[in-house]
Amino acid sequence: xxxxxxxxxxxxxxVVHLYYYEDYAVRDISKILEISESAVKMRxxxxxxxxxxxxxxxxxx
Length: 61
Description:
mainly alpha
């Protein structure tokens, strides 16, 4: 799974990594990356979508 996270574009990879692997809150990530909380939430959502698409693609024979 970490390989898929690392394959994400940087703007999604950084928020996904900070949120899921470093256990930072959305507020903290927004301060670290100097972006708004809504931008963090949107990047998390899009990052999850990309990961889901990749996982679904891997499951097919």
